[in-house]
C-alpha cells in the first residue's frame, strides 16, 4: 500500500517515531492490514536503535534526520509514548522484546520521572537522569501523556 512506503521513506527518525508507532497500532485496531504492524515494528526498531540511552537508560529526546543524537535530554512524553508503543506491540505480536522493553521503560519512569510523594511525572531530565525542569508539566498537558500511556497499556494487556 502506498501509505506504508510513504511513512517509511518520509518520516524522520526523531521524537515522533515512537508516537507514530503507537498511532499505527491504534489504526491496526480498525484496519487490520499487514503493513501496519510491519511499519510500526520498523519505526519502533529504528527509534530504539538510535534513541535508547544504553548508558543511563531512557530515550533521548531528539535525533537528526541522519539519526544522530542532537538532544540527550529525556522528556516525559517521549518515555510515555514508548511505554504505550511497547505495550501495544507486545499485545499484538506476542514478542517478548516488547514486553521486556515495556517493563524496562516503566521501571525507568518509576525511578526517575514519577513523583511518588506528590504524584505526577517530572517533565525533563538530563542525560544522567537529573531533573532540569521545575514544573512537572504545563497546565494544558498535565499528565496527559503518562495517563494515556497507562490507559493504552491496560487496554492492550487486558484483551483476551
From TrEMBL:
GO terms for molecular function: isomerase activity. GO terms for biological process: carbohydrate metabolic process. SUPFAM superfamilies: Six-hairpin glycosidases (SSF48208). Gene3D superfamilies: 1.50.10.10. Keywords: Isomerase. Transmembrane segments: none annotated. The keyword Isomerase applies. Belongs to the N-acylglucosamine 2-epimerase family. PANTHER family: N-ACYLGLUCOSAMINE-2-EPIMERASE. This is AGE family epimerase/isomerase. It comes from Heyndrickxia faecalis. The lineage of its organism: Bacteria, Bacillati, Bacillota, Bacilli, Bacillales.
Amino acid at each position: 500500500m502506498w501509505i506504508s512506503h510513504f511513512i517509511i521513506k518520509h518520516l524522520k527518525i526523531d521524537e515522533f517515531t515512537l508516537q507514530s508507532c503507537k498511532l499505527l497500532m491504534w489504526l491496526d485496531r480498525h484496519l487490520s492490514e499487514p503493513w501496519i504492524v510491519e511499519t510500526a515494528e520498523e519505526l519502533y526498531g529504528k527509534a530504539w536503535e538510535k534513541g535508547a540511552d544504553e548508558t543511563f537508560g531512557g530515550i533521548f529526546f531528539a535525533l537528526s534526520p541522519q539519526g544522530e543524537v542532537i538532544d540527550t535530554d529525556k522528556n516525559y512524553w517521549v518515555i510515555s509514548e514508548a511505554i504505550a508503543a511497547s505495550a501495544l506491540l507486545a499485545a499484538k505480536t506476542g514478542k517478548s522484546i516488547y514486553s521486556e522493553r515495556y517493563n524496562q521503560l516503566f521501571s525507568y519512569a518509576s525511578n526517575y520521572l514519577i513523583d511518588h510523594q506528590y504524584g505526577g511525572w517530572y517533565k525533563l531530565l538530563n542525560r544522567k537522569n537529573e531533573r532540569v525542569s521545575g514544573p512537572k508539566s504545563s497546565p494544558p498537558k498535565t499528565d496527559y501523556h503518562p495517563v494515556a500511556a497507562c490507559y493504552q497499556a491496560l487496554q492492550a494487556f487486558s484483551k483476551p
